[in-house]
Amino acid sequence: MQHATAVRPGLTRCLTLGLAALVVSAPAFARPTEQSAEDRQIALAVSLLMEKQHISQKHIDDQASERCLDSMLKSLDPLKLFFYQSDVEEFNRHNHELDDQVRGGNIRTAYNIFNRFLERVDERIDLALEQVDAEHDFTLKEEMVRDADAAQYAKTPEEAQEKWRRRVKYEMLTFLADDMDPSEARDKLRRRYTSIRKRWEQTSNDELLEMYLTAMTTGFDPHSTYMSPSTLDNFEIQMRLKLDGIGASLRSEDGYTKVHQIIAGGAADQDGRLKEGDEIIGVGQGSDGQIEDIVDMKLNDVVNKIRGKRGSVVRLEVRPVDNPKDLQVYELVRQEIKLTESEARSEIVEWGTKPNGEPYRVGVIALPSFYMDMDAARAGDPNYKSTTRDVRRLLKDFNAKGVDAVMVDLRFNGGGSLTEAVNMTGLFIDKGPVVQVKGPDGRAQPFIDPEAGMVWSGPLVVLTNKFSASASEIFAGAMQDYNRGLIVGDDSTHGKGTVQQLYDVAQLLFRLNKQKNMGAMKLTIQQFYRPDGASTQNKGVVSDVVIPSLTSHLDVGESDLDYALAFDKIGGLSHDEYQMVDSNIVSQLRDSSKARIDKSEDFAKDIKRINKFEEQKDRKTVTLNKEEFLAEREELDADKEQEDAFEEAVSNDRPVFDKEDHYNQEALSIMVDYLMLLKNNRVAIAR
């Protein structure tokens, strides 16, 4: 199975949790104990695969060992709040031994590091809880280090205490800035810190193994990772867009499990009692099973208890959001849930005015990912779930309804199936190469549009942003190289130009076919190139017309990741030219868009926010003076802006296309200008 998925910096955990709110595998509710025989087998398999199949053809050596230790410490303690400097120095004395250990199937170092981490978590949470009850002077002129690279590990208990005094003071300040009562703020912080300790103590052997082996493999490139059994389950659900459960997306908040979204058509939606914002505090199996308290339980483990075989019963003890004192028990029958919010969706939007006075009609396709139900496809199911099949159906509907143009919205599309990226591109071109892939041997192989003819031959705009990655970049890059469509959005896309192969560990070790889930290795085996020969690696696909947006200024691109592979080029391939886009058209569209944006009050506010965001995000510290904090926050809260962008990236409840949004309105205006400039040249004909 080949994939062109992107792991987004800062979003990895959100993505896992967001999907875990729908499905996880077998429960693991205990702190790691010691390395098992299975751990050893998996470590051996992963190390062998890395050395034999990774595109770099590098060995697991001392450099990989150093990177592994560094990544492990960052994943556990990114802000350097828990470990002492002496802990890190102790670990570093063995930083050239990890490679030899992993190649021998030995991962005991992971347990040593993690057990020390749990000791420090206990100590630091005790400090934090003391500081929650302490009095803080918010008139003092003092700051807290917020930048991970600028932060230092504490050398003494006194330094650790001071770190946590400032940390608690900062978090208290954020609550007070929202006009929260101080006693309520203290209660929330007590819950938060207590929950942090409990969640780390619930880390399973599988999770620790995934963390450690991924720390080793991402030293080769950011996208080579070991996926534990539960992560593999989540990945497969993301690709096939269906699961068995109650149809509720959940989130964890300070130890409580809250309903984030009710999935349309699912069991919870049909029942009607469970609402967004409700707290689930207990779960029972069957109609008479004992209800188990789930407060402070990890989200993955909560979901595992709620998920189950379709037709079976689960009972939820719920604290309703609109009446928290009236606890309710809801009995629900699990069923198959189709994740329709994650599939291609469409809408016809009217905008602008034609010469005859009628509005232009733009068919918008929102595409969150490039998905394919691989198991169903392999089994020969003629109706397997597929991006290309869904988009083909939507385009045929547009043709039947006579739209003037099509807009494919790939914002926040992190990639998916390479096959689907190639096949979907074929819906917009007659024939020819879509992408080239190059493996360790240096030879490039073209992936060709397998089907002659176009489903949509009219004007095309592709909307992208910095979260558009991998398979999205294959599609956008081909449209640009063929001069087939106009690329509009952020300065450039994410910049992930690598292809991953998924290796099932159990099948690899024992030649078992789905008999046992031992996780999988997602391994970078190839780099891909556009038809004209340029890689998208690090540079992405540069937009023809840029619309100002905060996402363009977030440090979420491939080039922001540790150990990303380098950009390069290979020879281009012969292909059709459609002349639907040229430099003259692009220049005129840029000028017209800039003129509108310069007059727009909404974009003036956006640009002011962007400038303030750039100013704040470069600061290494944040003030703990309440007056200064409130003044800065009134202008802009950079942390909140970035958090909101990440939330949008993983959200599945966005509308197809919000016509009232000024950004979207500008995209539509660019489309109308484009149609007017094309005049009678509105059919893509190869030249």
UniProtKB/TrEMBL annotation:
Gene Ontology molecular function: any one: serine-type endopeptidase activity
Domain of life: Bacteria
Any one Gene Ontology BP term: proteolysis
Domain PDZ, first and last residues per copy: 236-313
Record-level GO cellular component terms: outer membrane-bounded periplasmic space
Matching SMART domains: PDZ (SM00228), TSPc (SM00245)
First-tier enzyme category under EC: hydrolase
Signal sequence, start to end: 1-30
Keyword annotations from UniProtKB, A to Z: Hydrolase, Protease, Serine protease, Signal
Keyword Protease: yes
Listed EC numbers: 3.4.21.102
TM annotation in the entry: none
Family assignment from sequence similarity: Belongs to the peptidase S41A family.
Full protein name: Carboxy terminal-processing peptidase
Organism: Aeoliella straminimaris
